[in-house]
Structure formats: structure tokens, C-alpha cells
From TrEMBL:
InterPro entries: AAA+_ATPase, ABC_transp_ATP-bind, ABC_transporter-like_ATP-bd, ABC_transporter-like_CS, P-loop_NTPase. SUPFAM superfamilies: P-loop containing nucleoside triphosphate hydrolases. The keyword ATP-binding applies. One of its GO terms (molecular function) is ATP binding. It comes from Pseudonocardia aurantiaca. The keyword Glycoprotein does not apply. Keywords: ATP-binding, Nucleotide-binding, Transport. This is ATP-binding cassette domain-containing protein. Residues 8-256 form the ABC transporter domain. Belongs to the ABC transporter superfamily.
Length: 267
């Protein structure tokens, strides 16, 4: 991996949760310890691990949705953890997230078009008179209909809400998107449609993606490189073909043995 191709460099990332106590120092829970990996520009990088392994915590720290306890994160030349003010605002435009739970990711009291439009207004990307048209374009681009912008979140299926989540993430024209278990709550056939949509959008827009998943078939289908997490640690990382074909870690072997002949979801 050459340095000029690396868009994200993560070193020794750590997250500790502290619970205060009136009787003493309190307790600590180490959610992530010493996580390190690199992501190349334009690739899909997987974070693999069972529930509670720390992969979602890592994804949120990269975007400063959670503050890291310590470590180093460099995104395209910027040291992320120390950013503030206008530079942090620029980062938030360039780095977006699609959440796992599409139901709770949207305000049930607002039409979805308003929620897709919100980041455009926040970052002042377009004149107000153009925003409605931009929302319609985005909805159609992710496989929905423009006139659905006036509907409310409960009027959409789970797969449609995930398409809305993708549209909202793309509204600010990012070049980096974290996908936090984007298909885990969907039927297999719908999973394939969403994954194919993400592949198409990545190619069209030159996106760099981090895909967080416990589903090895999805990782194998989507990712170029991946890191395996266990109890907050990255236990192994590398090219997906190598990880799946000749795993070095016992944890990776156990994950693979738990899945019989993993196959990608069908479109």
C-alpha cells in the first residue's frame, strides 16, 4: 500500500468509558484498544466482528460522533481528532454515515424530503430555490420516486428507508461514507439491492466506504480490505481474499467456521 493512495490512517485508537462513583474512582470499560488500519482512496474497507467487538465505536470515532480517548486519525492530510471550527465543519461535510437502524434514524414528524434537504441547508450547498429539485434528484438516484419526498418515514419499508438514509448521506456530496450494518435488518433479497446500489454509487461518485458488518458474505462481496475486531482489538487486517483464504488469527478462523459456505446476497 503506497502512502499516496491512503485517504484514512488510523493508529492506536482507544475509547474508554468511565462510570463515576460517589464512593471512589468509579469503573472503566475499554471499548476499543489500540485499533490501527489504513484505508485506500476509492476502496471499500470492512470492519468485521461479533456484536460488542468495538467496530461501530471505531466508525463513530472516525467521524467525531464519539470522541476518542486517545489515538491518531488522519483523513486526507487532516489530523481528525484535533480539528475544530471551520476545519471540523469541512470534515463533517466530507465524511458521512448511514446508520444501521433506518427507523430511528429519521424524525417521524417530518416529511423525508425535509430531512434529506436539511444537510444541504446546513452546509449552504445550494440556493434555497434549487434545494427541492436536488432532493428529487437524490431520491430518484437511489431508486425512489421524487414525489415521495412529501411522505413520512413510517410510510416506507425498511429497504426504502435505508435508501433514504443513503440519499441523506449523499446530500452533502461526501467522498467518504461509513456504512454501519446497512443491511442487517433487511430481507436477503433487499440486502442485495442495497449492496448493488452502494456499489453503483461508489463507482459513479468515487466514494471511499467503510462497511461495518458481522456478515462475512457481505464483506466478501463488497470489500477490498478488512480488519477483524474482537473485544475492542484489531486482531488481523489485510486483503479480504487473504483473510478468508488463509486467516492468521484464531478469531478470524472461528468467525469463518461459524458460517457454512458464505455467499453474497442475491440481487
Amino acid at each position: 500500500m503506497s502512502a499516496r493512495d491512503v485517504i484514512l490512517d488510523v493508529r492506536d485508537l482507544r475509547k474508554v468509558y468511565r462510570t463515576p462513583s460517589l464512593l471512589g474512582r468509579g469503573t472503566e470499560f475499554v471499548a476499543v484498544e489500540g485499533a490501527s488500519f489504513q484505508v485506500e482512496r476509492g476502496e471499500t474497507f470492512g470492519l468485521i466482528g461479533e456484536s460488542g467487538s468495538g467496530k461501530t465505536t471505531v466508525g463513530r470515532m472516525l467521524l467525531r460522533l464519539l470522541e476518542a480517548t486517545s489515538g491518531y486519525v488522519e483523513f486526507d492530510g487532516y489530523e481528525v481528532l484535533g480539528l475544530s471550527g471551520p476545519r471540523l465543519r469541512e470534515l463533517r461535510q466530507r465524511m458521512q454515515i448511514v446508520f444501521q437502524d433506518s427507523g430511528s434514524a429519521f424524525n417521524p414528524r417530518l416529511p423525508v424530503g425535509e430531512q434529506v434537504a436539511f444537510p444541504m441547508r446546513k452546509f449552504r450547498l445550494h440556493p434555497e430555490k434549487e434545494i427541492r429539485g436536488r432532493v428529487v434528484e437524490l431520491l430518484e438516484h437511489v431508486g425512489l420516486q421524487g414525489d415521495q419526498a412529501q411522505r413520512y418515514p413510517h410510510e416506507f419499508s425498511g429497504g426504502q428507508r435505508q435508501r433514504l438514509g443513503i440519499a441523506r448521506a449523499l446530500a452533502v456530496q461526501p467522498d467518504f461514507v461509513v456504512l454501519d450494518e446497512p443491511t442487517s435488518a433487511l430481507d436477503v433479497s433487499v440486502q442485495g439491492q442495497i449492496l448493488n446500489l452502494l456499489c453503483d454509487l461508489q463507482e459513479e461518485r468515487g466514494l471511499t466506504l467503510i462497511l461495518i458488518s458481522h456478515n462475512l458474505a457481505v464483506i466478501q462481496h463488497m470489500c477490498d480490505h478488512a480488519a477483524v475486531m474482537h473485544q475492542g482489538h484489531v486482531v488481523e487486517s489485510g486483503a479480504v481474499d487473504e483473510l478468508f483464504g488463509a486467516p492468521r488469527s484464531d478469531i478470524t478462523r472461528q468467525l469463518l467456521e461459524a458460517v457454512l459456505e458464505p455467499t453474497a446476497p442475491q440481487a
